[in-house]
Here is the input.
Amino acid sequence: MKLSDVARTLDAQVLCGEALLDQVEVDYAFGADLMSDVLAFVNGRTLFLTGMVNLHTLRTADVLDIRCIVFVRGKEVPPEILSMAQAYEMILLHTDKTLFTACGLLYSAGLRSCVKV
Here is the structure.
């Protein structure tokens, strides 16, 4: 699924990386607030959905080559997060939807969950 489709499905605001929305595709989605779960279960081209807005979230995504993070629950994203995401060439999206709703909408649109191999 293209990230432009993800943004449309979630009625999400693009915080950075807008030029990449039609270029980057994801095969899976994973929603979590525990970075240890992300490290344990994410594989492949994965979209990461979380309510944890901090630098550790971006560092975790960078280690796993995650290109896009969706911040849920209308969390405010501070400037230092945006700066780091731009340095990592990440795409950040922001939605008022809960993690549960956002994951459900993406699942209904055809995106599937990570399966650890």
In short: Residues 3-113 form a domain with the Udp-n-acetylmuramoylalanyl-d-glutamate--2,6- Diaminopimelate Ligase; Chain: A, domain 1 fold (CATH 3.40.1390.20). The chain has a mean pLDDT of 94.
